[in-house]
Design goal:
Length: 258
């Protein structure tokens, strides 16, 4: 069992060089979902950049209504409050994927829309949620990164498709350093997304595990197979279909079969 590297807000924020992400960091020992706490923080516009971490979630959630399971202190469970971004959902999702992948390093890659893989196994996931207030929209970027899990810690059905940074690096991840890298990376890539969104697209394409490869997606219960030829920052994944033609698949209605 790895040593308990409990998250400490003072250590996470010490000399943190970010413009706004992580200006305030809260660490909960136990919560329902860090996205729930972050959603509360979106009510006040001044909370832009607040980062919520938890050692344990009782009802962590993933995309498409899935649950996100993690034993206490094994993962980095984090939600970032964004109340002042002009970015749209899809662009925010691409930017978060780039930022999280860069923070993890170790040859991590992106599987559209928001899975982060090392050696083709899922090491992290991202859930972007939004809140509409009268004249403004706010977002929560929820990030779950597997850190200390052993293979046996995953349920049998996930053991061949999930992994942790410790398994992949054969070492013990320092979650505090990872939390700091994560905040710096999100801060950095959000600034880039505002100024030069084309940079996000090209970095995303560099980090994509699917670009140039054959993929099968399921959209509205129908299967489509073809070659992934790019990403549209508004519409989604661009596929040249084997049946002919090019089609763009929206993340909200599409899942990847392989
Ligand atoms: C997915 O791959 O389905 C996305 C998983 C996102 C999980 C994180 S853990 C921190 C935050 N709180 C949640 O309840 N979900 C996100």
């Amino acid at each position: 069992m790895p040593k308990l590297d409990l998250l400490d807000p003072d250590k996470i924020t010490e000399n943190l060089k970010t413009a706004c992400i992580g200006k305030k960091v809260l660490v909960f020992k136990n919560t329902s979902s860090t996205n729930d706490i972050a959603a509360e923080y979106t009510r006040n516009k001044k909370n832009h950049g607040v980062a919520i971490f938890a050692e344990e979630q009782t009802t962590g959630r993933g995309r498409a209504g899935n649950i996100w399971l993690s034993h206490p202190s094994q993962s980095l469970l984090c939600s970032i409050v964004l109340t002042e971004t002009a970015l749209a959902n899809e662009m925010l999702s691409l930017t978060s994927a780039v930022a999280v992948t860069e923070a993890i390093g170790n040859k991590a890659k992106i599987k559209w829309p928001n899975d982060i893989l090392i050696n083709k196994k899922k090491v992290a996931g991202i859930l972007v949620e939004s809140k509409q207030y009268r004249a403004r929209k706010a977002f929560v970027i929820g990030i779950g990164i597997n850190c200390h899990q052993t293979k046996e810690a995953f349920p049998p059905e996930l053991q061949t498709i999930a992994t942790s940074i410790d398994i992949q690096t054969k070492s013990t991840t320092d979650r505090i350093s990872l939390a700091r890298r994560l905040l710096v990376s999100i801060d950095h890539w959000l600034t880039i997304a505002d100024k030069t969104p084309s940079e996000i697209i090209s970095r995303w394409e560099n980090l994509s595990i699917q670009l140039g490869h054959r993929v099968t997606v399921i959209c509205n219960k129908k299967k489509y197979t073809g070659t992934c030829i790019g990403i549209d920052p508004v519409k989604g994944l661009i596929i040249r279909l084997e049946t002919g033609g090019i089609r763009i698949f929206n993340a909200a209605h599409t899942s990847i079969e392989k």
